[in-house]
Amino acid sequence: MARYQKEISGCAKCPLSKTRTNFVFGDGDPKADMVFVGEAPGHDENLQGKPFVGAAGQLLTKIIEAIKLDRSQVYICNILKCRPPGNRNPEPREIEMCEPYLIRQLELIKPKVICALGTFAAQTLLKNTTPISKLRGQIHYYHDIKLVPTFHPAALLRNPAWKRQTWEDVQLVRKIYDQERSDGR
Asked: How distant, in Å, are the alpha carbons of 3, 33, 64, 78, 126 from that of 136?
């Protein structure tokens, strides 16, 4: 995984490469059975070069700990590896340029379950345009890997009422994780 990160960290395929401070590849256990995929680095992530280190990242860490795991036991990454200016939403062309990197990361990690954080992660991985509110709470598949979409932690900071649904979603992620590991898959 480190070799792949080094190989692509100089990416200049889209204009985001010109405004980034750091290429934000991913963080955690490269052999993790559970992967969290977000949409793009924010301000703090761009500065530190690691995903989910700002306020949303602190909430994600608490969520991971609430399902009795440590952040070091999972892998965390985003679709985009560079920060969109002003924390705007990723544009389709940017997703198109970065998605092969995410696909390769997932191929290398071989997780047993993926938790897609937010609309862009869920829609990109599932190849559909269904709203996150309709995707969440159910098991979907990314190839043969079980995938559970839920709200992005940044959305939870703006809409605390969604925390209950997110808690249900991550409990489902944990249940799948436990089942897949006990089945020896």
From this structure: 34, 20, 17, 18, 12
What does the pLDDT look like over 57-99, one tens digit per residue? 999 999 999 999 999 999 999 999 999 998 899 999 999 999 9
Q: Give the 3-state DSSP-derived string for 71-123, with helices as H, strands as E and coil as C.
A: HHHCEEEECCCCCCHHHCCCCHHHHHHHHHHHHHHHHHHCCCEEEEECHHHHH
Element (H, E) at 39: none
* Domains, in order of start, for the chain: 2-7+24-180 (3.40.470.10)
Tens of pLDDT, residue by residue over 30-47, are: 999 999 999 999 999 999
Contact 165, 150 (CB under 8 A): yes
pTM: 0.96
